[in-house]
Amino acid sequence: MTRRLVRMASGVVPEAIALLFTRVALAGIFWRSARTKVEEGSWLTIKDTTFFQFSDAPFNQVPIFNGQLGAYVTTYMEHFLPVLLVLGLATRFGALGILGMTLVIQTFVFPEMAVWWQTHILWVAMAMVLIVRGGGLFSLDRLIGHRLG
Q1: For burial by CB atoms within 10 Å, which of 32, 64, 103, 141 has the most?
Q2: Counting runs of H as helices and runs of E as strands, what totals does the chain give?
Q3: Structural domain of residue 115, as residue ranges?
Q4: Closest by alpha carbon to 86, among 32, 35, 20?
Q5: Is residue 8 part of a domain?
Q6: At what angle do helices 12-35 and 121-133 cross, to 10 degrees?
Q7: Separation of alpha carbons 22 and 136, rounded Å
């Protein structure tokens, strides 16, 4: 009985559902953050406050990606990478990008260990699962891979 339950729970479809939920959950976090950086009603018009935020501490501590460049790169990546994750397109690349962003945030913006244990460790765990396992059965990665053989 136990073996049968374990076999059912570790099948392709349950894994695909778990990976889909992981992709959507991680994408949602970064998408909501991205939407706070742009003008209401626009797609990618960055707010003046976002530029100010990236030129002020603690964001100006991030090497290279501070000031205007940081505002542009962060805003665009927080829009682009979640779309990849939701679609399951280049899932590993998207998750790797989010992992990198998370590590930069943890290292330079919010280096307190409390933030690591409360939030960032979960983002890292979800990104690492997607990097290791990919998008799963319900992803464009799988569809494209299947079509290409």
Answers
A1: 141
A2: 8, 0
A3: 18-148
A4: 20
A5: no
A6: 130
A7: 10
